[in-house]
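<amino_acid_chain>
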Amino acid sequence: KHPTYAQTDTGCQSEVNRGNFGNQYYGQPIKTEADYAATSQFNNKAVPGYGVDNAYVENYNQPRYPTVQNLAAVSEDKRKINSDAMPHAITVYRRDYEKNYGNTIDTSSYEASPPLISTANVYYTGYKNSTPNFIRSSLYSIPNSSELLKKCAIPFCLAITPFSKQDTFEMPLVDHGPEGPVRCRRCRAYINPFVQFLNGGKNFQCNICDCINDVPEHYFCNLDQTGTRLDYMSRPELLYGSYDCATNDNYCRNNIPITNPVYIFMLDVSYSAVSSGLLKQVTTTLANIISSGFFDSCPTKNGIKIAIMAYDTQIYVFCPKSGAPEMEVVFDVSEPFISSMNTFIVDPVENKQNIIALLSKMPEIFE
């Protein structure tokens, strides 16, 4: 195909084939490099190499696509949390209160997270899982790897309150007789709704460590076609996630029942605990409990003893029997040894004032 030529007022012929010259229009002349250099519109700017300003050439040669630095900046902006889009804490509390107040929650269901701890008058069935008032998790969607848990940046912990007074669940009592509760022989886990019975009910597999245990003769029962015990509806330990159990002397040291309990208060006196005010808050609360006569009103007040200890990189044991409290420092934390523990275990009723004075001085001692 022959190209088309057109006569212009400049007296030169130009090829105006639009297919070869993109934005050229028919009937217009072809401009040469000299024409571009002489045109004021492009002079010192448009074409690099023809008396062009260096600053403009530098900008002209810059890539038009995003750089790695720009993409990183955009990604950083997307990762930021917009505080204005986050719901207010009071709004979240109010919504949860309106949704769950006065309702009955089935603890055997995994469809939704339990109500917030601030929502009161919530009733739980207690089937299979323990109620949130007894044990509450910080995460209800558990990461499947430690790396994902680290990226989540939320600590995974359990808040356990075995004797919570806020719970409306009526705790059943299980008594297996002189043999005591049925437990796993390896990890010592108690029998619960999630163990699996095998061999016609003669064995059960622990849901914690997968150990196969023998079922005691007094606890044997036949299974149905689904592998479920026929008496599970009459066994609270196989029906509920929380229950009280009567124990025997095997749970006591040297098979001697405990008559004089000892409460040991271990206080964190590290730099972070002291600087944050945690130590002062704990000692003040403990002093208020002792001064309120809590131990005076206990049914077994004649046998209760307490001991006050502290720790950071060392262990500190206090003796508040005298007006000037004594302190013993234990440097070997891996194998601690205390010369005479009986001198540090005191009666909270007889030594009330000395204990309160010691607790008030502890923040100053480790400041």
Q: What stands out?
A: Residues 1-28, 40-65 have pLDDT under 50 and may be disordered. The chain has three domains: 86-160, 173-254, 262-366.
